Structures are given as structure tokens and as C-alpha cells.
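Quick one:
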Amino acid sequence: MSAPVVNTVEDSGSGEQPSRGGWWRGRGELGLCVFLFALGVLVITDALSLPTDFAQRGPLGPKAVPVVVGTLLLLVSGLLARDVLRGGRGEAEGGEDVDLSTPTDGRTVLLLSAAFLVNAALIDFVGFPLSSALMFWGAAYALGSRNTVRDPLIAAVLSVVTWVVFNELLGVSLPGGPLMEVL
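Output:
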């Protein structure tokens, strides 16, 4: 006995347009490949333009690590593109306690973005401790914390400790702003 043959090819002779997305449907990861490739090229070209005369110590100069990182970015982008074109797909997000069918909370994303942009705009004027405290507080507010005493206090302590660690212990100069004389 033989099994009946079932035709699985759909006949779209009605002149309908192909589904939206066409060839790109299921190949969205190629966008990531393009991004990784561009980033790799940027890192390598920037590394090759580094002056080496003042920082050369031994056989490896300041170009070595960025060139290796850029080369690895190019390699990963090529391997990922090959995998996607051969039909490979990334595993869908499992989400531990997240309902993936719900839409993105645009309000939270906008509030977090605003907190970050305010930090970037104010850091040169008011200094790192104040602008970062505003950012930390804004992020806590955006994520749902509404404690008006604890949140700003934690934000201030976190930003000052971060500034002290970077500025004093690590030697990375961050703008202190008006709090420079106080600390």
C-alpha cells in the first residue's frame, strides 16, 4: 500500500502580492550581521589610526587589542550571516516570568531614555554626582519605585560613591561640578 500524495505547494495564481517582508521574513538577524560588520570595520579603522610613538611599550602597542576585537567582530558577523542564510535561527526568548505576548511598555522606555538623556545633558554643567543621582532616581521612578525619601538618598549615595571610586581610586577624572569643593 502506498500513502496518498498530498500537494503542499500553494498555488497563488490569483495574482496576490507576496507576504509582507518577503525574502527578509525570518532573516532579520542579518541586520545584526550588518551592524557587527560595520562595528568591526569601525574598530579596526580607528585602531589603525592610533598613534603608536608615545604609547609603544614592548612588542605590542595600543593597536593590538582593538585590531583583535575588530577582527573577531568581523569573524562573528560572517559566521552569523552564514548560519542565517543556511536557515539557522536564534532561539526565541523564553522569558522567565515575562509574558512575551504583551506589548512593550512605551512609558517606561521613554522615562528611562529621558533619565539617561538628562544625565548626558547635565553632566558637564552640574557634574557627575548630581547628574548621575538624577539619572539613578529617574530610572528607579521609571521602573516603578515611588519612595520619595529612600530613592533619592540611594541615588545620591550611589553616584557619589561611584564618583569617588573612579576619580580618587582609579584616577579616571569625572566632572565634579559644584560639589567639587564639598567633597
